[in-house]
Amino acid sequence: MTAATPPPARTDRLLAALAGILAGYGGLAVAALVAVVVRPEAGPVPAVGDAVVDRTPAGVKDWAIRTFGESDKAVLEFGILVLLALIAAALGLLALRRRAAALGGVGLLGVLGALAAVTRPDSTSAADALPSLIGAATAAGLLYVLAARLTRPRRAAAPGTDRRGFLIAGAGVAVGATAATFLARGLGSTRSEHAAASRAALRLPRPASPAPAVPRGAQLPVEGISPFVTPNRDFYRVDTALVVPRVDADTWRLRVHGSGAARERVFTLPELMRREVVERDITLACVSNEVGGSLVGNARWLGVRLADLLRECGVRPPSQGGPADQLVARSVDGMTIGSPVEDVMDGRDALLAFGMNGEPLPFAHGFPVRMVVPGLYGYVSACKWLRSLELTTFAAYDAYWVPRGWSAQAPVKTQSRIDTPRPFAKLTAGPGRPVAVAGVAWAQHRGIARVEVRVDDGPWQDAELGAEDGRDTWRQWVHRWPATPGKHVLTVRATDGTGAVQTERRADVMPDGATGLHSVEVTVAGD
User: What is the pLDDT of residue 378?
Assistant: First the structure.
């Protein structure tokens, strides 16, 4: 009678979990190396991350943006790595008893990663599957070797553990995987250096139509108010790209085509820069910006008029009999953004921008070329890392966000925000020492005509407006409040250039932008 195989000791189980994690680490390292050759976006972590983003409900995405801000992608990537580590540990434990099943689980993960890569919107080759498949094969081989050390027989009658051999093999895997990771980063940085070099070598042309100087008084001398021009490093970034595309300007091309374009054209960056270059101050806003939120910024953009380029391709707006009412912009990362043709050709300063605040676009903000259209939320206008423009119709095609519950068309809504004092601030005031209640208001392409402040349930009082730079930028405002001791609620509202007053009705950001009035509660102490 043969004795039953004893259950693995606790130490062996811990080593088995470690074996799974080490095998997974080695597989990811090799996958990263292969992705350098194929393309960085095809790596299993970016591919799976993008698949998660694509399939995440809009409400969850908004929660992530509100909670983590621009760190939402780093949090997602960290979460994917933690989940993979847990799965790898579980497969390592499974390998103690059922090695074939564990290896099959590794293979299944590789197939899922490959499917995520080849089904990305920007995938154009089956080669995108290679990083995940080769990485999984590597992980399976490493798990087989490490698991064999934990189940190697000491004698013919009973299985045992070669712990010393396992530790030596595990250390070798860890060192090799770390070396592969650094090599992948080094090779990847070499590739991105070409893009960085093309940006560094870019010399922005002088605008034939420069932006007027920002008028004196546009920046109010109030501590805590947002700067009138948002520095590039502080400008908000909201997109779905886990890996920021680093596009080589020397090889970049823009294709204009579609049923609404009589003539298809392909443009290079030098060709765009030889056109009439214009410079404009324009405020951009994200549709995910909640009332009082920070996903809005103002910058000086340099580029060429989009309408002129479209007319050269034989495009006519619908009001002039054109067959296309939607302009679909495609990014190098597969994002699609649909804009109304009528809006981008109605005379507003819709730009193909290659400069931002006096320098070439930062990579995170769309280098080498992005769209900037005043008066429309970014998700229907501000395509970054642009590669093509297609003239079609809203009936024929839904851009990325529309099937996910967002409106196909979304003009910016009138909004105002209190920057100072901050919520729940404790203030000191007294005779002759009013509190500066200040912030910004925006209604791009309509302008801001008036801002009012209300204290508690009192009457609306006019705020002092900063000088207007144009109807496409936000406007600063300040109200000198003779504060009285106690708790108070401060509320702001704006009136746009058409005379429409900002609505008090609260609405969520979906489907086409939040509405409501921004309020802050403060406490004032007396002398």
Answer: 96
